[in-house]
């Protein structure tokens, strides 16, 4: 009998259908493909920020009156309610009311954090916020991640929480665990920063030969837009140019010569040292808190003559206050 392509296609289709039917009749294979535990996780509760690049800033010209707002939504369409809270002495304290319709605007108030913690907030502080989602079947999902293991029979065991690690990864839009940082309500322009500032070094590596404690520096606007210059930084005649995000006050600075080491250590003595500010989001961002006459820098130091080679993984934390 002549076998045409049409008949070959029909035979292949019938064979695939038989394989699917017999596969579904085998419960062990079914567990391997659609394990009940995994299926339940896939139906879990989740609340996401609408903007994946959402900056979590508690904005206010008084640190105790700041507010953070952001649009949130229910990506799985099964959330009955959602709330946020903060850990105080090992106990989670809810902040504000429950949210029961989505999408909606999340609002976190500094006054609620102050009431929960019993202490005043300060500019530059960060607070870790946790979210809890209750799904329409009454299951509560939170920021505790899970551990998934599968044995040789294809049976899966889940321990820990009920939220997958990947959903909590950095860069995820999830609203189950995130920091909010206390910042000024408006960003001070570089021209308004001009004047005398005093340095206090609150974190310092012993490998960084120069210290800035108690030194006064002049800040001038420029040279470019959204930039200011710290004149004679590290007191060896080198200026330090800082770029500012006009929306958030976050600071960054390319590597530039700061000083020549004169500590006498064989590894660094006489070596030119560059400093830079890495563009980092969140609580570890260098930032201008001009409304409080405060600038916080996190400096990363490298040997300038070798084009790299970090002096230390410890960032120098320098707080400048206007005089």
TrEMBL record:
PROSITE patterns in UniProt: PROKAR_LIPOPROTEIN
Name of the protein described by the UniProt record: Uncharacterized protein
């Amino acid at each position: 009998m002549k076998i045409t392509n049409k008949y070959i296609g029909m035979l292949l289709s019938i064979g695939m259908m038989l394989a699917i039917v017999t596969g579904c009749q085998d419960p062990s294979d079914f567990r391997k493909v659609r394990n009940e535990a995994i299926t339940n996780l896939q139906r879990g509760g989740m609340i996401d920020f609408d903007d994946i690049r959402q900056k979590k800033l508690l904005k206010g010209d008084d640190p105790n009156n700041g507010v953070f707002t952001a649009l949130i939504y229910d990506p799985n369409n099964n959330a009955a309610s959602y709330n946020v809270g903060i850990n105080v002495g090992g106990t989670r304290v809810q902040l504000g009311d429950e949210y029961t319709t989505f999408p909606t605007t999340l609002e976190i108030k500094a006054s609620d954090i102050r009431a929960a913690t019993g202490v005043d907030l300060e500019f530059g502080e960060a607070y870790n916020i946790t979210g809890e989602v209750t799904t329409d079947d009454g299951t509560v999902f939170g920021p505790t991640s899970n551990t998934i293991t599968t044995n040789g029979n294809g049976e899966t065991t889940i321990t820990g929480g009920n939220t997958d690690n990947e959903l909590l990864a950095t860069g995820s839009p999830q609203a189950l665990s995130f920091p909010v940082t206390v910042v000024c309500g408006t960003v001070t322009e570089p021209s308004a920063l001009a004047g005398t500032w005093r340095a206090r070094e609150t974190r310092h590596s012993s490998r960084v030969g120069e210290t800035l404690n108690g030194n006064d520096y002049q800040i001038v606007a420029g040279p470019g837009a959204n930039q200011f210059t710290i004149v004679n930084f590290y007191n060896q005649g080198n200026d330090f140019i800082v770029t500012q995000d006009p929306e958030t006050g976050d600071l960054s600075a390319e590597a530039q010569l700061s000083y020549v080491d004169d500590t006498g250590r064989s590894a660094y003595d006489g070596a030119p040292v560059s400093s830079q500010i890495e563009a980092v989001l969140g609580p570890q961002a260098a930032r201008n808190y001009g409304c409080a006459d405060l600038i916080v820098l996190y400096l990363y130091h490298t040997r300038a003559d070798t084009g790299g080679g970090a002096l230390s993984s410890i960032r120098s934390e320098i707080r400048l206050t206007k005089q």
